[in-house]
Structure formats: structure tokens, C-alpha cells
Amino acid sequence: MAVGPGFSRLHLIFRLLGLTGVFVLALAGAFMFALPEEFHDAAFLAMIGGAAAVGGALLVEARALIHFFGSRRAALGSNVVMQTLLAVVFVAGVNVWSFLHYVRFDWTAGKDFTLPDDVRAQLAQLRGETDIVVLQQYVQRGESKEDKYDLAAHKKIVEKIQDLAELFQDLGARFRVVLLDIQNDNFDAMLRQLKKDKPALAEAIEKAPENSIFFHANGKVQRLAFHDVYQIDKKASAEDNNGLGNLVLNYQGVGPIARRILNIEERPPRIANAVVHPVLTLSDHENLYLTMNGAKKVLDAHGFDCKDLLMRKVEEGGGLSPDPAVLTFQEGRYEQIEEELVLVNEAIEKMEKSQAEATRLLKLWRDSSLAELNKTYCYVIFPGGSQGVLPRSQLDALKKTGRPFKVIDVDDDDKQAHVKAYERELVILQAELEMARSERDSLLKERKTLNVDALAEKRRITDIEIKMKRELADRDLLIVPRVTALNIPRGTVISNPNRVHKLDPAQIAAIKAFLKSGKAVLFLLGPTNE
Hints:
The protein has helices at residues 5-34, 40-69, 74-100, 117-124, 148-169, 187-197, 199-207, 234-243, 255-262, 293-301, 329-367, 370-376, 395-401, 412-449, 452-459, 464-472, 497-500, 505-516, and strands spanning 130-136, 175-181, 212-217, 220-225, 230-232, 249-251, 270-275, 305-314, 320-328, 377-381, 387-391, 406-408, 477-482, 485-487, 492-493, 520-525. The chain is an alpha/beta fold and 530 residues long. Strands 9-8-7-13-16 form a 5-stranded mixed sheet, sandwiched between helices. A hairpin with a 2-residue loop joins strand 3 (212-217) and strand 4. Helix 6 packs across helix 7, helix 11 packs antiparallel against helix 14 and helix 16 (464-472) runs parallel beside helix 18 (505-516). The mean pLDDT is 77.
């Protein structure tokens, strides 16, 4: 059966299309296994396209197959086809079997990428799914400027961290490893999906100060910084290999990662910080000389749960009350907000009254005639040059003083001067009112963020010792800072620190009970000034 050159060319095109479809099907199928779920839809569409290309090629090939099997060369051709099919089936089978039964070989000298048997046994006992997220955001703690060793170490550490994370994925499908790179286009989409499905994990990722590994299970999250696994030794890197500068990384082993996974459900260490003033707390963000917020950042980075306790109330104006107290930072802030709201509301009320009066007087001076104004006001001139507009109702009081003065009527210049003065006063009052109302709104907004019901319950406890014991009951460590020197070179110190930091007997009794329970107290004692 003869065929024309046009069919031959078309036949060749469809054969190439069919082969392309086979490759697309194979690659898309592999991607379905290897890529995250967000890429599965695209891989599925590629598989549909590949199947369509193969189907079209088979339809065109049917005519040639019918002619081929009807010829004398059918027997020889069939033999070749069968051998080819067997080879394809064998290669495909080997690849499928190897994909399902792969083996990882660790040829490092110290078996760096092999889980110890005891760790593997402990991890095998875990139930439920564990997410391992490698966050790459190109930030290392404490590094203000990266040098050549930092840049060289960054890429290498990321590669090694991913290899380590994949070790745990080999333990089974319950360990899921995800790489989040802030420079990838799909980073925001992946983070939005995490906020929807796993809000605790997404919140921890957003708060991470550096490159980190996150372990998430049952709504609990543990974080591990890259430098907790691999630490660059810059001195050794510079001196290594006769000064050629080979990169030296100190590997901490799989222990830190395994401990984070095994301890996901474990309660984080809890610390209480007992201070006399809010500026000394871990929660203060403003006072650069006195705040312990920097310590809190370090503690938060290592998973500590921190709480501030105020040993004194803060009076109006910022001074310390002589009476002892036991307030959490939120309680102290709540009371401060309440006091500030009283003052702000009083100021707003006064300004609103002044605004109403200034508006009334502006309308009076602007809309009244001079004759009407002179019924109420007059211009008074005193000896020595003192003069001005006064209400006529004050003239009798002036006469009783015996002080001589001259009275004349107000004129148009006086009227225009008063109109402009009241207009300026209203502009100033309006600006001050807006600032006061904005401050009030900010205070109300901040108050809403506090757990008012829980704070009210705590405030009902008036016994200092009982309340302090209650606040310390769930703490593992109590820190008692005693700041005495602010700037030693300049001689700036806290006068009479013994009085400022003095603890009440009830507070001391609670601290003694805390120590007797087997827990620790860290006293940070500044130098004496007296």
C-alpha cells in the first residue's frame, strides 16, 4: 500500500508528538510524587496534555500498524516490537522499584547524615504528623554585616540543613519537610496557606529573627536556629590549609533537631522577672538604658516563657508608690491606662468647654454691631499705658480699687482684633482636641488588647504574699534585678537604691517559699552607691 510524501511527513510529526507526550507523562507523574501539593494541579494538567498527544499519535499510527502487520515483514517487525516493549517495561519497572525502595548511603567520616539507632527508635514511637519547615530568610542573629565567610557558609549550611531535614522524612510520611525561601515567588502564597491551616506555625515563622527550622505537631511549635546546628568558625576558616581559607563549619549533630521534635509537647521553661518599675521590665520597648527587652528577645528566641512582676505601683507623674504590690506588666499597664484615661478625659472636657465658649465669643464679636458690643464691652485705658477691652460688668469692681482709668467705646479695630484672636484660639483648641482624642483612642485600643476579666480577678486579691505565690507557682526561675548605676563613667546612679528596691516582708516570704519548693532565684545586684 503506497503512501504519499505528505502523509509521511505528517506521520513523522505525529510520532514526534507522541514521543513528547510520553516524556511529559513520565515527568508529570514524577512531579506528582516529588513536588508539594500546590504544584499537583499543574502536574495533572501536564499529564492530560501528554495523554492527549499520545492518543493523537496512536490514532495516526493505527493505519501504518494495520499495513505493517499485513505485510511479509510482520513476523520480523513483531519480534523487534516485542523486544523493544520488553526493554521499556524492564527499564520502567526498575525505575519504579528503585523509587519505592531507594537506599541512602552516608559516606561522611563521622556519619553526619545518619540517625543514631536510639534517636530513630524514639522518633518511631511518635504518633501523628510532624511538619519540619526550613525557613531561609538570609538573616543570621547578631550579624550586622556579612563577610566572605558568611556568604560562603550561608549556601552550604542551607544545603546541609535540608539534607538533615530529609533524614527525618525517610522515617515515614508522618514527617513532612517544607522549604520556605523568602526570595521565592511562591513564599507569600505558601505563608498565607499556613496561616489558614496552621496559624501557630505561621505566627512562629513571621516572628523568627533569623534562618530557622520549625517543628510543628498538634498546634505546638518548636524553633531551632541554623547556627544551633552548624556554626561557622571564621578563625579556623582563615587559618585552614595554609591560609587558603577553606570553610570550616562546626557540626552539632542531629541531636538538637531530634530533641526539638521529641520535645514539641514539652512545656517551655518559664521565667518571672520581679522589678520595681515598668521601665526595668522585659516588656518595655522604649527606655534604652533600663529596659530588659533585649534579654527577652534572646529568651524568646530560645523558647522561654517570660513574665514581669511589678513590686510597686507607679503613681501619677511616674513616681513609685511607697506601698508594696504584686502586679503583672499587664496589670500595671491596665492601671496606668485607667489613670491616663481619667486625665485625658478631664482635659478633653475642659477643652470642649473652652472651644464652646470661644465659638460663642467669636460669633458675638463677628456678628454684633459696634453699638451692641459697647453695651457689653468697653475699652479701658490706665495711667502708664496699660489698656484693653473689658466687660462693663467689671467697671464697678475697678472703681472700688481706687485706681484711675478712662473708659471709651470699642471701635472696628477692636472688633476685628477680637475676631482674629478667637479664630486663632479655635484653631489651636481644635488641634489640641484632636491630639487628646487620638491619645484617648490609642489608650482604649490598647486596653482592649488586655484580658480585662482575668486582670480584674487578679486585682481582687489584696494579700501580697498570696498573690505573689500564685504568680510564681508556674515559674521555674525568678530573676530579681537591682539596678543601682545608670552610667558609671558619668556618675549617673540611682540615689538611695536600698529604699527604691526594698522588698516588703510579704514579698520576701513568697520568694523564700519559691526557694523552698526547689526552684531557683537569680539576683542581679548592682554596685552599692552609698
